[in-house]
């Protein structure tokens, strides 16, 4: 599944290289030359991952990372710090403010891709292509197919993304706002009750194989995917 990756890098040549590399790996690259531009893009749509240069004009990458990780809305977005400084103390400092990984320039595209994949798998399992199976319900991100006890279930694209997110994060209660941020990625034009509408459709589709009870309503809080 392609991820929306925000690149905050002030050197145009490196930014270009990063964007090209991400596009070739099948991701969508959003590009910012400064923290200010990055913040504008984040307000439009939450990225799935941020590649953040350490040395930026104005607010530094490390300050921005700290800010993102202290904001309820953005703290779940994984961050890979990018820097020319290869010292161990810097690495520790980067990880201390909440960065998920750290890549030193000059980097090889292959190494960066591997790290992106690892971070996405760890922080946003629905961004990887691994099939998930729970109690006979199986979702395959590669073929975009959902089966219940072997029978194909008919899901719309939004219901598919919703189920993928819920199955990737089982046994946890998700508020409508969290679901909107992580599944729709754009909180501006969608209302909370939209989530309820798609949950209803998803349950209807899962009822085809008797799996609708895996989606539980937690009154006053949100939804949970649970096999129990
Ligand atoms: Ca820089």
Brief characterization of the structure:
The chain is α/β, with parallel strands linked by helices and 228 residues long. It is built from eight helices and twelve strands.
Topology:
Elements: E1 4-8, H1 12-24, E2 28-32, H2 35-44, E3 49-53, H3 61-70, E4 79-83, H4 88-96, E5 101-104, H5 109-123, E6 132-134, E7 137-140, E8 145-148, E9 151-153, H6 157-168, E10 173-175, H7 176-184, H8 192-206, E11 215-218, E12 222-225
Helix pairs in contact: 6-7, 6-8, 7-8
Bound molecules: calcium ion (CA).
Give a description of the structure.
With about 230 residues, the protein is an alpha/beta fold. It has two domains: about 5-125, 3-Layer(aba) Sandwich (Rossmann fold); about 130-225, Arc Repressor Mutant, subunit A (Orthogonal Bundle). Helix content is about 40%, strand content about 20%. It has eight helices and twelve strands. The strands form three sheets. A five-stranded parallel beta sheet has the order 2-1-3-4-5, sandwiched between helices. Strands 6-7-8-9 form a four-stranded antiparallel beta sheet, with helices on one face. Strand 7 and strand 8 (about 145-150) form a beta hairpin. The radius of gyration is 19 Å and the shape is elongated. The mean pLDDT is about 90.
